[in-house]
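stage 2 :: seqdesign
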């Protein structure tokens, strides 16, 4: 496949309800899609950066700029035959910007796989035709509201609940959910770096609720603090923001900073690096699961393909489209008995619906190769 042009699409995607975490509240997604047109196919990738640099240092406007001004010129210089497996190496001199790089790599990978008629799941080594779907529940305004929200998601069929927590909203809401829905509900919490090691005794109060894990309690760079915390609490620690690539994942495991890893392809630079992290964890017997960033159907399709790999033993944040959007840019992902089907078509297996894409688009920039 020879690349002929790249198109950067910006979309405005309102959320069905505000999504609050310890670092802020989102009411809409400013989506950046990368379209790569080759001689035989078209591929798509989604940049999962948020509108503001709160979850990480990346944000949508910055990702758009670095793709246009720094990443694509280097790929163009590498020639029209650059392969997805070469993207990380070609772009390595540009420091950071993992989400931007992942979007480009995914689009090139998608186009290449479509050209040869192979699905992303098959190319990565997927072992399932459907994956268990969990749901992430934002910080609520009241305990009663939280109970109603969780009950609604369980009625929809989700098989695992993740509660966002922060200081002042942790033990009480977790206790209420556990009491209301019982000890058998797969339940976990996500702090998004909201605590410090000084909170260890407080976080230990969560041990009595039999949680699957506590996700990213401390700052992303504090691996030693997470290792110390792991010795002080019984709830397994899972790292998210800390895991920016394979080397960091191995370091975190070697230090005992975590016993579970949340793999987000955008955060680690792409689905090929995500697979490498999966493979190491699988060899070590370390559970992994696929995190989410409020993706459209483009990013969701790729995440579901990743989650079909054998080491993804915990339900991920691979929720149905209507969890976030009234109207998705692709055909919507629908929940079926708590699972989502893994796309079987070539590449990521989905593409934007042209009229929906046009309606949601706020800007479009075509870049010749």
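stage 2 :: out
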């Amino acid at each position: 496949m020879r690349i002929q042009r790249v198109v950067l699409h910006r979309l405005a995607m309102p959320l069905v309800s505000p999504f609050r975490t310890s670092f802020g509240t989102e009411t809409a997604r400013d989506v950046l899609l990368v379209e790569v047109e080759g001689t035989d196919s078209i591929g798509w990738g989604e940049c999962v950066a948020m509108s503001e640099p709160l979850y990480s240092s990346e944000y949508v406007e910055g990702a758009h700029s670095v793709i246009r001004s720094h990443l694509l010129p280097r790929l163009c210089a590498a020639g029209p035959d650059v392969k997805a497996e070469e993207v990380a190496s070609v772009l390595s001199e540009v420091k950071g910007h993992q989400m931007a790089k992942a979007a480009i790599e995914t689009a090139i990978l998608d186009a290449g796989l479509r050209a040869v008629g192979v699905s992303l799941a098959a190319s990565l080594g997927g072992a399932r035709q459907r994956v268990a779907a969990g749901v992430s529940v934002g910080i609520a305004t009241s305990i009663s509201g939280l109970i109603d929200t969780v009950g609604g998601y369980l009625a929809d069929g989700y098989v695992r609940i993740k509660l966002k927590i922060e200081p002042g909203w942790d033990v009480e809401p977790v206790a209420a959910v556990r009491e209301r829905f019982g000890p058998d509900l797969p339940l976990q919490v996500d702090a998004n770096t909201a605590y410090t090691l000084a909170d260890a005794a407080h976080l230990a109060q969560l041990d009595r609720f039999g949680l699957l894990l506590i996700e990213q309690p401390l700052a992303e760079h504090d691996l030693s603090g997470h290792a110390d915390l792991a010795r002080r609490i019984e709830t397994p620690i899972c790292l998210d923001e800390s895991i920016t690539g394979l080397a960091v994942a191995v370091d975190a495991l070697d230090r005992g900073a975590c016993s579970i890893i949340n793999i987000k392809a955008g955060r680690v630079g792409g689905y090929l690096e995500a697979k490498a992290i999966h493979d190491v964890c699988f060899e070590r017997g370390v559970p992994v699961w696929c995190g989410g960033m409020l993706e459209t159907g483009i990013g969701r399709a790729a995440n579901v393909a990743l989650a079909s790999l054998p080491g993804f033993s915990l339900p991920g944040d691979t929720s149905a489209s209507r969890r976030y959007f009234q109207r998705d840019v692709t055909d919507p992902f629908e929940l079926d008995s708590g699972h989502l089907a893994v796309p079987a078509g070539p590449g990521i297996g989905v593409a934007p619906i042209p009229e929906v894409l046009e309606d949601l688009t706020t800007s479009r920039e075509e870049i010749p190769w």
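stage 3 :: structure notes
- The two ends are 13 Å apart (CA to CA).
- The chain has 13 helices and 13 strands.
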